[in-house]
Design brief:
This protein is α+β, with helices and mostly antiparallel strands and about 425 residues long. It folds into 2 domains: about 200 residues, Metalloenzyme, LuxS/M16 peptidase-like (Cytochrome Bc1 Complex, Chain A, domain 1, 2-Layer Sandwich); about 180 residues, Metalloenzyme, LuxS/M16 peptidase-like (Cytochrome Bc1 Complex, Chain A, domain 1). The protein is built from 15 helices and 11 strands. A 6-stranded mixed sheet has the order 1-2-6-3-5-4, with helices on both faces. Strands 7-11-8-10-9 form a 5-stranded mixed sheet, with helices on both faces.
């Protein structure tokens, strides 16, 4: 009889050395209408994913919410068929579509079996380039969004997040403005159609194909795209200067709240800055994983919260640093004081080698998982390509994770994590 040895849960498993590996890279192609396409082959199952990335988002809006509602309405039908008819066809072939809108980019992602690509691709392109924007479906979408706004208005976490983003970037900035009920009620189908005509054009789309034999899909794509009339993007580059609030406290009241939501942060350098990767390491140590200082302090030692985290987030045109948590109303002042204390400690003395090694091990594990599979590899390509970077960014990233010193992290903390430079939002007070 085999007896499984009893685990000693008081002893950590042995650490494995990080094994370097070569990242599978995309191959570049050009389709009809000069559409750039990138293929990435990986996986053994006959499944393929195609990302249709539109190089426009809320940054390019003339009317608020045009970008998000345009993308949302793609699934509601085309000029020729209803959304129900199209959904039934895609279901028949086992295909699946996802839609995504951001401040900088929008898009549609198709998942399908390779053998059904020729059957579903014309329908996908019909949705992408010839949507119908039916009024009834738009009214339903608006009602659903209005209901969600009402729900969010009662959540201190949503209140804090919205106020924080508005304070960091400015209430009219695409990265900072928040959806208002009057904006939703004002949207008309012709405004969405106008945004679509200006931005969802053949010269404003990039295609990324990942999975099993992706280059075999190029001929099918070319054939389907050749049925689409070439169109040109509205090339006017819109300017949106950042108008951050001054550092300090912002209170968002909510009568009777038993919890307070806290958001602390500031504008930060982005992915193209030399300090960015080092800041990602420093942020992980501060609040970027379960073993972080903020988690150990506020959750494990003080019992103020179930969870607290920090992040350095980069859009294409700006970035920010944030710390977020929810705590009992009676301990919110103490929680803010402890957060500021942890920032001050990072600036007061270099981190110990043992703590840094634990962060290194965690980040190396995450790095490996982030390249696991064809679709993850495609995502990593997009993460650098649309920032004007290339795969050397990942070489720089892992080299920095493995080599950064306590002294270098201390210098970054002194430079970027001054507690007096933070905007502090407390919602529920």
């Amino acid at each position: 009889m085999n007896i499984t040895p009893k685990l000693n849960r008081q002893q950590s498993p042995p650490a494995a050395a990080f094994a370097a590996f070569e990242i599978a890279q995309v191959r570049a192609h050009q389709l009809v209408h000069n559409i750039p396409a990138y293929t990435l082959e990986a996986g053994e199952q006959p499944v393929i994913r195609i990302d249709f990335v539109i190089g426009s988002g809320s940054w390019d809006e003339e009317v608020r919410l045009a970008a998000s509602l345009t993308n949302r309405m793609l699934q509601e039908g085309t000029r020729f068929r209803s959304g129900r008819e199209i959904a039934e066809q895609l279901d028949y072939f086992g295909a699946y579509l996802q839609y995504e809108t951001g401040a900088d980019r929008s898009g549609m992602t198709l998942y399908t079996l390779h053998k059904h690509l020729g059957a579903v691709l014309p329908t996908v392109l019909e949705l992408l380039f010839q949507p119908g924007f039916p009024l009834t479906e738009l009214e339903t979408t608006v009602r659903n969004h209005l209901q969600q706004l009402e729900v969010d208005a009662q959540k201190v976490s949503s209140m804090a997040r919205k106020q924080f983003m508005k304070s960091v970037f400015g209430e009219t900035h695409p990265y900072g403005y928040q959806t208002l009920a009057e904006d939703l009620r004002a949207v008309r189908p012709d405004q969405l159609a106008g945004f679509h005509n200006r931005q969802y054009t053949t010269d404003n789309v990039t295609i990324v194909i990942a999975g099993w034999h992706p280059e075999a899909a190029l001929e099918t794509l070319n054939k389907a795209l050749s049925q689409i009339e070439p169109t040109l993007k509205d090339i006017a580059e819109r300017q949106h200067p950042i108008q951050s609030s001054l550092p300090g406290r912002i209170e968002v009241p909510k009568a009777g709240a038993l919890q307070h939501a806290l958001r602390l942060g500031k504008p930060m350098v982005g992915k193209n800055d030399p300090d960015y990767v080092g800041l990602k390491v420093l942020n992980t140590l501060l609040g970027g994983y379960f073993g972080s200082r903020l988690m150990s302090n506020l959750r494990e030692n003080k019992g103020y919260t179930y969870g607290v985290g920090s992040a350095v987030m980069s859009y294409e045109r700006a970035a920010f640093f944030t710390i977020a948590t929810e705590v009992g109303a009676d301990v919110s002042e103490a929680a803010i004081a402890e957060i500021l204390k942890e920032l001050a400690l990072l600036r007061a003395e270099p981190v110990g080698q043992e703590e840094l090694d634990a962060v290194r091990g965690y980040l190396q594990g995450v790095y490996l998982s982030n390249f696991d599979g064809a679709f993850a590899l495609a995502d990593r390509f997009k993460d650098v390509h649309f920032f004007g970077l290339d795969y050397s960014y990942y070489d720089h990233y892992i080299t920095t994770v493995q080599s950064i010193t306590p002294t270098q992290l201390h210098a970054l903390a002194v430079k970027h994590f001054d507690p007096t430079s933070l905007i502090t939002v407390r919602a529920g007070s």
